[in-house]
Amino acid sequence: MISRNRKVKKLSEVMLPNFHNLYKAWESSKYTRYVCKGGRGSAKSTHIAEILVLSLMKDPVNIIVFRKVGDTLKTSVYDQIRWAIQELGVEDYFTFKVSPMEIIYNERGNKFLFFGVDKPEKRKSVKTASFPVAYFWFEEAAEFMQEREIDIVIKSVLRGKLPEGLKYKGFISYNPPEQKHHWINQKYDIIDDSTTAYIHHSYYYDNPYLSEEFLLEAKEMKEKDPVKYRNVYLGEAIGSGIVPFPNLIIGKLDDKFLKSLDTFRNGVDWGYSVDPVAFVRWGYDRVRKRIYAIDEFYGVQKSNELLAKAIKKKISKNELVICDNAEPKSVAELRSYGIRAYSAKKGKGSVESGQKWLEEMEIYIDPARTPNIAREFQIADFEVDRYGDTVARLVDKDNHTIDATRYAFEDDLKKRRTAQNKKAIRPKGI
Fold first, then answer.
1. CATH homologous superfamily for the domain 11-232
2. Does the annotation mark 140 as catalytic?
3. Which of 22, 136, 176, 360 has the smallest CB count inside 10 Å?
């Protein structure tokens, strides 16, 4: 028998201030994906569960909760939803089933469903008889190896037309992995795409309910291993822990300012089958050691003719374009289209020298103007050997615009090396 005397808590009574904006955004239904990221103890899963419980009671929908591995459902998201129901004081309104795993809202009959996604293709169709599956939650989304795995499942949810007043939406929650190149960091952590998803970052120090033991462990790691602390407790994608481009400035670049520049460099990195071709155009302030990303052309399976047409629209007639020397025929083809294209000379140590030169530059990038340059420079990271030690070279992945930039500034790098060599052999007293 259901007791009606129990006091049902309002969400405002149990919600931390840091999550108020998340709840408002969820209620607005402006976005389809609500991305919650943060480190250990940040309370993101707790608040997602509470929001979804109230949503199930409010709206005539079913909610599906996913995890990568089905065996983890009972002791993670199922128990988390059950805890949220108890915390809100509404457990008398629900029935809890384990086989099949469901939590049913007795007043209406709609429910929480729980599924593992060991094989995403099995979830190509998600249908329920009485109520539409309109809301979803992917917990520990970083466990999925590819974004495609989540997309397959979401598309299986977003199929039928919903009744008036309802909209498809769901949560994606995770602790950011260390690796900057992990797909989820590239999509939601390194570059926040707030136009397609609402992104919320939470921190343990905003959670007043943590134990003294937890706080002491966090403090100890902060003192002994501050880099690991940033990942574990602050939810940062730290990569190797060393920033390849320490003087990287991401922000808006004004058209009027860019038109005032008078020195430019252009480079091309060729694509190979599924790899994109990348053209980059930079402004160069030699005196202040600053470079400005002005324009780009980037894409897979783009013909040299299409590339040439794009380049000619972006540069002045007599400007040089320095290209990867791996494809001399492609360089010659660009020249046949009237572009002053030349092969980079590269040479021993050119990669390391180019990397070092870029580290010394102030690099200004506007993501709205050059999104691919912005993405690659932000996710760039040093390699780590099998012992976990950082190696002084960049990970050879998603670095097409970076390579094109090295080619673009090849003559400037050569002048730098020549000057350093002369300085190194100059006799004392001269």
1. P-loop containing nucleotide triphosphate hydrolases (3.40.50.300)
2. yes
3. 360
